[in-house]
Amino acid sequence: MKVQIEESWQQRLQDEFDKPYFEKLVAFVKSEYKKAHVLPPGHQIFHVFNACPFEKVKIVILGQDPYPNPGQYYGVCFSVPDGVAIPGSLANIFKEIHMDLGTPIPTSGNLDHWVAQGVFPMNSVLTVRAHETGSHRDKGWEIFTDAVIKKLSDERENLVFMLWGSYAKEKMSLIDTRKHLVLTTVHPSPRSAEYGFFGCKHFSKANAFLRSKGIQEINW
């Protein structure tokens, strides 16, 4: 199956695109777009892939579901477009960066400047019905995004994986911890951030690791 995605990802993921589960997933997603309000708009499903080629990835941040409110999600986990109110989890991420690095808290929740530097924030599920969190779980997206994590782990070195919350931590088994740094803590959600996300210092730890490997650090 031919999928419109950036060339370096196309080459590495074509085996996935050709598998029966992916054909079923595409059929499901297409039918959903026809009968329901689905997020993000179709051309943005692979936005983070298109904006961050395989060889450019430095840091992987894993999420679960896209934001379900129209206007919020455009294909980058945790990020929202300029001018859109900053969701609670992202506000807590910014708060932790401020405490960790002393940088000002941004007024925009758009994380494209992270992606341009090699931060790869990816949800496990890449589509959702509007206002129905989790509505596209267990349809095949998780198989695909697990393959993405495994591919990054196997074919790259010295990446930083940020696994926040119990769901993300389950992905640890896909990552070779001998050649990558894995940082884990609770989810930045307002329900859980105070139980370990605040004070985790993941952002300074990630930059210290990159520096130690001679890799340009991230301007968070």
TrEMBL record:
GO molecular function: uracil DNA N-glycosylase activity
Record keywords: Cytoplasm, DNA damage, DNA repair, Glycosidase, Hydrolase
This protein's record includes keyword Cytoplasm: yes
Gene3D superfamilies: Uracil-DNA glycosylase-like domain (3.40.470.10)
Catalysed reactions, as listed in the record: Hydrolyzes single-stranded DNA or mismatched double-stranded DNA and polynucleotides, releasing free uracil
Signal peptide, first to last residue: none
Localization per record: Cytoplasm
InterPro entries (UniProt xref): UDG_fam1 (IPR002043), Ura-DNA_Glyclase_AS (IPR018085), Uracil-DNA_glycosylase-like (IPR005122), Uracil-DNA_glycosylase-like_sf (IPR036895)
Active site positions: 65 (proton acceptor)
Every Uracil-DNA glycosylase-like domain range: 50-210
Family membership: Belongs to the uracil-DNA glycosylase (UDG) superfamily. UNG family.
UniProt-recorded name of the protein: Uracil-DNA glycosylase
